[in-house]
Specification:
alpha/beta; Spore Coat Polysaccharide Biosynthesis Protein SpsA, Chain A; two-stranded antiparallel ribbon; 10 helices; 31% helix; globular
Length: 283
């Protein structure tokens, strides 16, 4: 009998407005922006499926119906291209749809990433789970047979059974755009988190190790989120909740193998498009 995955569920916070891509995101969710011919959100779901997660939760807001439509059957389109050479372009999305179950939850107010994750608690229940931010597109390593970032975090969870976050080193001048961790290196590229700071100025940052959009979280995080006071802009930050959790329990940070593109920025989006066209596009 096949071994049941330790982590079955993955949340996708997808309620933001995508203001950095206006006017394109005025009527289209930023998560549906295509990298070549595949939307960002599909790359993320495929990464979750690779890691063994088949229960996918989307935290959405107003104007996000296109995400649900994408992960549904389009009878007219499929009939139109049936038997043609274009049908192969639907192979990936059909595989996702055939192997995943989807739940959609509405975040009625934009109150931060922590609040978005808390919105997903009814779906998650008392289980460990993953979180993917689709803006952070993570490509697999180009050498060796290592899998993508979330699979790497899942393998570590099997060993350590605690909350785990993905990190990468960023230029010192960019620390103000990220949550930054400090901690003790307990193995190659693996850190026991001691502290976290949300978007510190470069002169105040303890390190240049930035949290990126891949998390494995244990269910007690929901209690910490409920007790986290809103910070800047009235938002509940997951960084603040994880900081408190790290003071009381083990939280690990890992430098994942592979390449990450910040597709929340125009520059990163263009860089990712060029990379995937050259390396991963089915021509």
């Amino acid at each position: 009998m096949a071994k049941s995955p330790l982590i079955r569920k993955c949340l996708f916070p997808a309620a933001g407005y995508g203001t950095r891509f206006l006017p394109a995101t005025k009527a289209m969710p930023k998560e549906m922006l295509p990298i070549v011919n595949k939307p960002l959100i599909q790359y993320g779901v495929e990464e979750a499926l690779e890691a063994g997660m088949t229960q996918i939760g989307f935290i959405t807001g107003r104007g996000k119906r296109a995400i649900g439509d994408h992960f549904d059957t389009s009878y007219e389109l499929e009939h139109q291209i049936q038997g043609t050479s274009k049908e192969r372009y639907l192979d990936d999305i059909r595989n996702v749809m055939d192997n995943c179950d989807f739940v959609f939850m509405r975040q009625r107010e934009m109150l931060g990433l922590g609040h978005a994750i808390l919105t997903g608690e009814p779906m998650i229940g008392p289980e460990p789970f993953a979180v993917i931010l689709a803006d952070d597109l993570c490509a697999a390593p180009t050498e060796g047979d290592d899998k993508k970032a979330l699979s790497q975090l899942t393998a570590l969870y099997e060993r350590y059974q605690c909350s785990i976050i993905a990190i990468e080193e960023v230029p010192n001048e960019d620390t103000g755009s990220y949550g930054i961790i400090s901690g003790d290196e307990i193995a190659d590229g693996i850190y026991q988190v001691k502290d976290m700071v949300e978007k510190p100025n470069p002169e105040d940052a303890p390190t240049n190790m930035a949290i990126i959009g891949r998390y494995i979280l244990t269910p007690e995080i929901f209690g910490y989120l409920r007790n986290t006071k809103p910070g800047a802009n009235g938002e509940i930050q997951i960084t603040d909740a994880l900081r408190q959790l790290a003071q009381e329990r083990q939280v690990l940070a890992v430098k994942f193998k592979g390449r990450r593109f910040d597709c929340g920025s125009v520059e990163g989006f263009i860089e990712a498009t060029n990379y995937y066209y050259e390396n991963d596009y089915i021509k």
